[in-house]
Amino acid sequence: MEEVLLDKCPRVETERLVLRRWEERDLEGLTEMCGHLEVMAFFGGAEAPAEVERMLDRILARQYKYGYCFPVVEDKQTAQFLGFCGLNYQETDIPSGPGVEIGWRLKREVWGEGIATEAAVSWLGFGFKTLKLREVFAIAVEGNRRSENTMKRLGMTYCEGDDFIDSGLDAGDPLAKNFLYKITYEQFWGTGL
Ligand SMILES: CC(C)(COP(=O)(O)OP(=O)(O)OC[C@H]1O[C@@H](n2cnc3c(N)ncnc32)[C@H](O)[C@@H]1OP(=O)(O)O)[C@@H](O)C(=O)NCCC(=O)NCCS
């Protein structure tokens, strides 16, 4: 019998966006976005081009291994790189891990237009319907209000008692504390998004 492999990161079009797999050509857009101080405020500051190159190598390796890794968000009209948003397999032993998380990072110019929500709704629907996930979680560094607002807009709920300290940072580091949000299959279909 012929085996059909499931594409875990198909090219998807939403109202304003194209969501797709990473390619080498995304380095320029990723470098510009990750070089921006405000975008990187909760990730330890702007990243130098060489660091971003290593980041893209890690993303491509993870995409190859798991089938997806926070997919690219592109403007449907202009094909411009806007950032990334979508599912990622989180293998660490944080609360709720290992499992599938959803995350996002967008170029500063396009914040406040509902783009993270538009992309995330599409990937959550795909995750629950096609990948048959039972739940998806999301992580925000303490104080990242914009990201927490997106989680709430998506119908995700704060998991009280599951706050955790990033194991790579000192407990006193202002970026060390993380909040966890979650959405289940049943909750997602109940949101009407
Ligand atoms: C977090 C981040 C991805 C949010 O992106 P976003 O596209 O602005 O988020 P949303 O989709 O939730 O959009 C919400 C905003 O768009 C507005 N909006 C406009 N049109 C909208 C629409 N059609 N649907 C939903 N919201 C819309 C909302 O009113 C809201 O505005 P506000 O921020 O002034 O309250 C972005 O701020 C970012 O990249 N931050 C830096 C990286 C980061 O910290 N990532 C998170 C790591 S945990």
TrEMBL record:
> What are the GO MF terms of this UniProt record?
acyltransferase activity, transferring groups other than amino-acyl groups
- List, alphabetically, the InterPro entries matched: Acyl_CoA_acyltransferase, GNAT_dom, N-acetyltransferase
Going by the entry's taxonomy, the superkingdom of the source organism is recorded as: Bacteria
UniProt domain N-acetyltransferase: residue ranges: 16-157
* Ranges in coiled-coil conformation: none
Any idea what this protein is called?
A: N-acetyltransferase domain-containing protein
Species in which this protein is naturally found: Pseudovibrio axinellae
